[in-house]
Amino acid sequence: MRxxxxxxxxxxxxxxxxxxxxxxxxxxAGFVRQLAAGHYSMLPLGMRVRTKIIDIIRxxxxxxxxxxxxxxxxxxxxxxxxxxRLGTVDVMFRLKDRKGTDxxxxxxxxxxxxxVATELASYRELxxxxxxxxxxxxxxxxxxxxxxxxxxxxMKDSYSFDIDEAGLDKSFDAHRAAYERxxxxxGIPAIVAEASNGTMGGKDSLEFMCPSEAGEDLxxxxxxxDYAANLERATSALPQVEDEAGxxxxxxxxxxxxxxxxxxATRYGLAADRQIKTLVLLVDGKLTLVLLRGDHQLQDQKLIxxxxxxxxxxxxxxxxxxxxxxxxxxxxxxxxTDLVVIADVALRGRRNMATGAxxxxxxxxxxxxxxxxxxxxxxxxxEVGSGEPCPRCGAALQLIRxxxxxxxxxxxxxxxxxxGVSVLGPDGAPIVPIMGSYGIGIERAMAVIAEMHHDxxxxxxxxxxxxxxxxxxxxxxxxxxxxxxxxxxxxxxRTSGVNVLLDDRDERPGVKFKDAELIxxxxxxxxxxxxxxxGLVEVVSRRTGERERVAVDQAVKQVQALLAEAQA
Length: 568
Known about the structure:
Blueprint: H1 21-28, E1 32-36, E2 39-42, H2 44-63, E3 67-68, E4 74-76, H3 77-83, E5 93-96, E6 102-105, H4 110-117, E7 128-137, E8 152-162, H5 165-186, E9 191-194, E10 204-211, E11 217-221, E12 228-230, E13 251-254, H6 261-268, E14 276-283, E15 286-293, H7 300-307, E16 312-314, H8 317-324, E17 340-344, E18 353-359, E19 362-367, H9 369-372, E20 377-379, E21 398-412, H10 414-418, E22 423-424, E23 430-431, E24 434-441, H11 442-452, E25 454-455, E26 458-459, E27 470-474, H12 480-495, E28 500-503, H13 509-519, E29 523-527, H14 529-533, E30 536-541, E31 547-551, H15 555-567
Parallel strand pairs: 3-7, 15-17, 17-20, 27-28, 27-29
Antiparallel strand pairs: 1-2, 4-6, 5-6, 7-8, 8-24, 9-10, 10-21, 11-12, 11-21, 13-19, 14-15, 14-16, 18-19, 21-24, 22-23, 25-26, 29-30, 30-31
Helix pairs in contact: 1-11, 2-5, 2-11
């Protein structure tokens, strides 16, 4: 590669609207350009990094016996109707073709791979691991942070088909191990965290999370053991609360002007952990009371997962008053028999509690949850807080911000059942295969690597994914000796298989050095007339900043040794 022949439109100033470091630097270094919100053009240097990421992932997928496919990204809507997801996914792009046929752009490919699986015939063909690199489309409400949250991106998505749960467990573990190797090779630190399956269905999933202030997720981690969980799934070992028995029946307490948990605690001495918080929600169109301890917050995804809901919103004041006879601030579930009541498990067995009386400006005290409230469903609904005890070892949990870099799911038989996939078992009886689903976003992986490997001067790519492992800089293109030496080193590096970029531009040395730092090649060989007069060139490590003057005829061997050490 010669810099003079490549399109590398570097910028001297940070783009005004770039928030994340990866967004700022990938734009400045000329790797990407924004077409529209959430849509990016990948330029030559970006393509080189993207290709290397794909190559690493492909190697690890092939190593576990996976087979590569390429399936369409535009799908008949009818296929998504069969799985039940057409009406439940709000990020799906929808369109009609010229015949008026409803069509969608795939935001994932479970349904489409399952249509291929209908040709599986015998248990002897299982397990199967199938994967692809394909464009996904998601109508994100708020695309942000460059490649971290976009509307169009490449995903490596893979799918496993097994005879039974034991087989799925093995396939899941094989993918987990492959993902751990992939992220290690990409230079991305990864925490494996329990996660919600969301709209995917199934019973278990794990997210691979990279700690970063640019992340949108919070992960609860234990410093003492290996427990980690996304906040949508995290739990903790709350200490048991010993309540006094309380009165034989709830007692009325007039509370004029009380509208919040804090008001009741401050003005009447009823601590938040002795209060029952009542949330009124429309869950799939049905008015529902959700109960939590007064000092706890609802984690929405936990509620969705607990009851399999698809649509949840807060009830409006007029809806609440029509159903309960009071406005927010005085609501409770005591004596309510005609509404669905869902309670957090932290309230189970609690006594002598306080809650709203469903009369404005009135509460009740002495509430025994088991005696006075008809709870229809108990579930873990609350959001875990920092410092709470780890559910495994009791150490204080920490909440860290992180970026999701991969997600693996145990899907179960939702899709194979919907599409009529079955194989003949050993006894000749039909068996519905069980599925797993496994995803990595390619451009997001590129952005996360950039988030993890940069400084104020620019990017610092790991050797494995760098667009060029070495940049050879001609300090002065007009000096024939400099040009000859740089060309010789460039040719020798290429012949030895090193991915090398020759900066042969007629630019000032300072511009070239800054650009080399900005694009992030792991090593730079600078060929200048002053050093060359002594038979030397300068070798610079981008990661450490170390500089070494070496003999011209030793420069290639020195860089090869440094590359080998960096990849060890």
